[in-house]
Specification:
- The structure is a single chain.
- It contains six helices and 18 strands.
- It is an alpha+beta fold.
- The chain folds into two domains: about 130 residues, Diaminopimelate Epimerase, Chain A, domain 1, CATH 3.10.310; about 130 residues, Diaminopimelate Epimerase, Chain A, domain 1 (Roll), CATH 3.10.310.
- The protein has an 18-stranded mixed β-sheet that branches.
- Strand 7 and strand 8 form a beta hairpin.
- The longest helix is centred in the N-terminal third of the chain and has 12 residues.
- The protein is globular.
Length: about 270
């Protein structure tokens, strides 16, 4: 069984967010085996996909596992899976994935950017930010928002881009603040830069300290920033050590996430899954 390693939301190897992709021929193995391999690989997410029969609601069933848990929604590992399908000749134009968050699509031509069609995360304001501010080491929080069940993050707007880049959160205090993790964001410091807003994402509750680039978080970041910046189409930069770019378009209840991907390695699993 082949394991594909793909760097996503980047056009350069060894940047963006790495994901592992396993294409299965038949049914998913037991959950504990899927989790065991994801823990062994120790990436933010490992994606498992299996083909569905003709007439099904989608072309492939897709699941995502962090080193510690299965998650309901993942952007970068979906992008990685679509990239593997495209480069292996099994994606022609558009592919539909059946997931815990409904049917998601990925669209792309022979080369270039892939576009994911995801549900837009609902945003609910949070008034009490004292615990979140403590978790961020006293960073001033301008606004706070819950992002709905599929994403399950706490989105925190801070003063400026410098605050996003310099924040050093306490993982112990972050734990339990939300169902999945915490997004920290601000608008770009320079209006002439190549991106409109900046973010970082932290997920200690699911075994990921800081995620390099989080596609699913942008289903909340895009509807948060679009009305504030006056455009449905924006570019987000995730300012992790590896960094990555996500192009976002808000279309009501759906958000489009655009990004590049680079295959960097393949491995052979020598034991049964």
């Amino acid at each position: 069984m082949r394991i594909h390693f793909v760097d996503t939301f980047t056009d350069r190897p060894f940047s963006g967010n790495p994901a592992a992709v396993v294409l299965l021929d038949d049914d998913f193995p037991p959950d504990e085996q899927l989790q065991r391999l994801a823990s062994q690989l120790n990436l933010s997410e490992t994606a498992y996909a299996r083909p569905l029969p003709p007439g099904a609601e989608a072309d492939w069933a897709l699941r995502w596992f962090t080193p510690a848990a299965e998650v309901r929604l993942c952007g970068h590992a979906t992008l990685a899976t679509a990239h593997v399908l495209r480069t292996s000749g099994r994606l022609a134009g558009r592919v539909r994935f059946a997931t815990l968050s409904g049917v998601l699509t990925a669209t792309g031509e022979a080369e270039g950017t892939l576009t994911l069609d995801f549900p837009t995360a609902p945003l609910t304001p949070v008034r009490d930010v004292a615990s979140a501010a403590e978790a961020l080491g006293g960073t001033r929080i301008r606004s706070a928002w819950r992002t709905g069940p599929d994403v399950g993050d706490l989105l925190l707007e801070v003063e400026d881009e410098r605050a996003v880049r310099s924040v050093r959160p306490d993982p112990g205090r972050l734990a339990g603040l939300s169902e999945r993790g915490v997004i920290v964001t601000a608008r770009a410091a320079d209006a002439s830069s190549t991106y409109d807003y900046v973010s970082r994402c932290f997920y200690p509750d699911v075994g990921v300290g800081e995620d390099p680039v989080t596609g699913s978080a942008h289903t909340a970041l895009a509807p948060f920033w679009s009305p504030r910046l006056g455009s449905e189409q924006l570019v987000g930069f995730q300012a992790s050590a590896r960094g990555g770019i996500v192009h976002t378009t808000v279309r009501g209840e759906r958000t489009l996430l655009g990004g590049d991907a680079v295959a960097v390695m393949e491995a052979e699993l020598r034991v049964p899954l």
